[in-house]
Amino acid sequence: MRLVQLTDIHLSPFLSRAELQRAVDMANETRAHIALVTGDLVSTFRDPVDDCLDILAQLRADAGIFGCMGNHEIYAGVEAHVESGGARRGMRFLRSAAAPLRFGSAVLNLAGVDYQRRGRPYLVGAEKLVVPGAVNVLLSHNPDVFPVAARQGYGVTISGHTHGGQVRVELLSADLNPGRFFTPYVDGVYRIGPASIFVSRGIGTIALPARLGAPLEVSLVRLCRS
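-> structure tokens emitted (226 positions)
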């Protein structure tokens, strides 16, 4: 099962429409079963959210396009606009909701939550979205929810938010990564018992139009039988 993920797009003066189009074209080359968009489509209310949705709607995947909201949807005040605009374009943003998808005799239960703010209880009510006997996959922009998601019964969590630190350097064999000041889940795969999380570095930037040691990525996640 192949899941292609775009996250932390931040379509703005720091990332052009042409660059986003290239990322979507790369995602389509993976021929994924499901396409995922895990938040931060834009950075501020001044950014072209409809242009972003238009380009993302070109994603192609057998079972459709699904997403969740990031913190910048809150800052820009576009959560409802992204949800409704995405629906009109054939994308479903899961806001404390789940979409059970059947593949042969198996069910992949795809759940999504809005951005989970630090300092507040994580994933309140999300345990009700878990389907017993299914492969339960949670979309959460903030990766810090992972321990709670694992306890609730989500076998896989897919996140972004960190940009992989955006600027990171190796000094005397130490990885100097600002993301580590905020979360233990900076990029890549982490595990707690049988549960896993994948954190993508995403494709956009914030504050500075630069990445160092944290290259952008269009992520292809493969779910395999254990």
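The helical segments are 17-29, 49-56, 71-76, 79-88, 146-152.
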